[in-house]
């Protein structure tokens, strides 16, 4: 599953609620707003977020909808997913323009990666000139390495 902004939020939700149908999640500038289903099976997750994002702020947002609801930030999502996926090793790699956090040794090989871009806003892509890093390629390189061991079963409608 992949997406940007709301599409990223939906990708996170599918990974949390229908993990049996998702091999991995790779997305841009979204937030994790879903709790896992009771039968959640850890899935590899890669995501990127710009620290200057003013649409879905990197550090989260209090009262985002006027009802007091809190929207978590990128770091909180990384920490939560790393814990949920049973990861036991964390590392951080700095690069020009940001850093990557990796959580390793996770259940089912469901590693978690957060790429933080210090100068990027809500569209952390080369073609928007918010970064010189090909984040689309980075997402593809992560997600394309995973597949489900069984074809998902869909309910008849």
Features:
157 residues; alpha/beta; 21% strand; 6-stranded mixed sheet; 3 helices
SSE blueprint and pairings:
Layout: E1 2-4, H1 6-17, E2 25-28, E3 45-50, H2 74-84, E4 89-95, E5 98-104, E6 112-117, H3 135-143
Structure report:
The longest helix has 12 residues, at 6-17. A hairpin with a 7-residue loop joins strand 5 (98-104) and strand 6 (112-117). This protein is 20% helix and 21% strand. The chain has helices at residues 6-17, 74-84, 135-143, and strands at 2-4, 25-28, 45-50, 89-95, 98-104, 112-117. A 6-stranded mixed beta sheet has the order 1-2-3-6-5-4, sandwiched between helices. The relative contact order is 0.19. The chain has 157 residues and is an alpha/beta fold. The chain has one domain (2-143).
Number of domains: 1
In DSSP terms (H or I, runs of 4 or more residues), the helix count works out at 3
What share of residues is helical? 10-25%
Distance between the termini: 23 Å
Describe the largest sheet.
6 strands, mixed
Listing every helix as H and every strand as E from the N terminus to the C terminus, the arrangement reads EHEEHEEEH
Low-pLDDT segments: none
- SS-based structural class? alpha/beta
Basic shape: globular
User: What is the averaged pLDDT score?
Assistant: 94
Approximately what portion of the residues adopt beta-strand conformation? 15-25%
**Number of E-state strands:** 6
Radius of gyration: 15 Å
Strand order of the largest sheet: 1-2-3-6-5-4
